[in-house]
Amino acid sequence: GAVVSQHPSWVICKSGTSVKIECRSLDFQATTMFWYRQFPKQSLMLMATSNEGSKATYEQGVEKDKFLINHASLTLSTLTVTSAHPEDSSFYICSARRGTTLHEQYFGPGTRLTVT
Amino acid sequence: DQQVKQNSPSLSVQEGRISILNCDYTNSMFDYFLWYKKYPAEGPTFLISISSIKDKNEDGRFTVFLNKSAKHLSLHIVPSQPGDSAVYFCAAMGGGADGLTFGKGTHLIIQP
Lengths: 116, 112
What we know:
Chain A is an all-beta fold. Chain A is built from no helices and 11 strands.
């Protein structure tokens, strides 16, 4: 199988603080990891693409300085929401792509972020 | 602007019958299409995919049809089972982009 985990599964933080979300590929090496955000009753929106050892590529409209992505190894990517505000409250989902399956992304279970 | 559209927010189908979920896209650069199944508070699970060079792909109870000229694809599930109740997302990729572009999803409800 291809298992992707996320931690934490849910987090509540105060406005102005930073939150780090981890995404791990448990049984394969992920050459590329993606971060998506989903608002209620909306589609998953791609935020950024990260390749191990290089800077993330952000989608238009996503603030690089607010959503810091680090892809330090082939099995771990982290998303840090800096100076979080209530409008950042959302469901954040990562996915990982194996090198040999270019078109198949394996998704993590998601992280529910609530900023109060 | 939604490049991938799933115009039916929900669909109710009787157990044992065929479920047909539809998806339309506008970007002609898309060359690969995927269907995902998602339960609440969980990440999407990959179901089936199709390349733009094909018009049909089948995997067990799931078949995806692609009509490139109409920029339309559909997912057929037959026979439908209670465990199929979930939100189904259509996704597309291509045009040099690595990430997926998703539709808003269709909530499939299988009635006993």
